[in-house]
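Morning!

This is the sequence you dropped in the shared folder:
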Amino acid sequence: MSTPPALLRMVELSGAEAMWLLEGGGLGRLVLVRRELTTVRPARHVWEYGRLIIRTPVPSRAATYQVDEIRAVPGTGWTVTVSGPAEVITDPHEAAHHQRALPGWTHGPHDTLLRLHPKAVAGFRLARAVG
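The structure's back. Tokens below.
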């Protein structure tokens, strides 16, 4: 006899809690539009001085960044999405610092560091429904 799946619900997070979870994560996805197609690329991030520094294989001027931690067996976890304008970090000293601090991709033309200025933050906690 099988057990019925647990009832799950999504609870919206406050902006402060979503940012706290974002700071604790390290791996996410950069979602952007390139050549009129939505593209999703893996990325690493760090929160620094009110901005999100993202190491990714693609440059972008505006981006949406998603981070989540979903535990499939108990059906709990969280997801956070941040969006806003982004700029490529061009200062060689700052870029070298972030390349040392953030694990990432092979150094080369497709290794890009972005500074994302968050304008919108949305987060949800996945939880078991009561009753």
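Headline: The CA atoms of residues 106 and 131 lie 50 Å apart.

More detail when I'm at my desk.
O.
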